[in-house]
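Reviewer 2 asked us to include a model.

Predict the structure of this chain.
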Amino acid sequence: MKLSTDSQLVLKNFAAINSNIVINTGSELKTISEAKNILAKATVNESFDTAFGIYDLNEFLGVVGMFDDPELTIADDSNSIKISQGRRAVKYFFSAPDILTSPSKDIAMPSAEVTFTLTLDDMADIRKASAALGVSDVIVSGKAGESGISLVVTDIKDKTSNSFDIDMDGCQRSDEAFEFIFNISNFKFVSGDYEVTISKRLISHFKNLSIPVEYWVALEKNSTFGGK
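Predicted model (structure tokens):
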């Protein structure tokens, strides 16, 4: 079996969410953060015949990266994998899946109060503003009775905090007022444009518009919905 560049990209991204992973049979990869506030799922070209666990995903990808075009062969006892090319090979041992953190079930996304497209450029601007201003809160806000929304990068705990705003076009939203708050450290996404849906039940869904990868991200508990 070969591990495609796209699959390696997804796994590298997943390693930023959780350093270990359980790979189940089939073509779907999933991971969940230790805090259980980020869940990610991707569909890849490869189909895995055997379930296995990797304790240190970055280490595993580093071993794969030692070779230009490696062949991956799972041992008959399913306890290890041979990563080889030509005369060179690495025997890499798996970890027991039951000692690793993995999603137990998918999230059933509730009905959304807000839907919009977050572009690659928008995300780049959000990250730049967070770094430049030294703040980590991202607020998706809308006023009662209005049709637009704004993304605000700020410090929600500091009323005098400097802030960066983006007015979002083409959104669908509730007529109620809301302030949905994220910590930017939870925006651990593969680069691209995303369809974003947010529920007042403090859960959001980010779906990549180019490749089959998606994320569910918990909102901060001080998010609000309703009122003026």
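Residues 120-133 form the longest helix (14 residues). The chain is about 15% helix and 40% strand. We have added this to the supplementary material.
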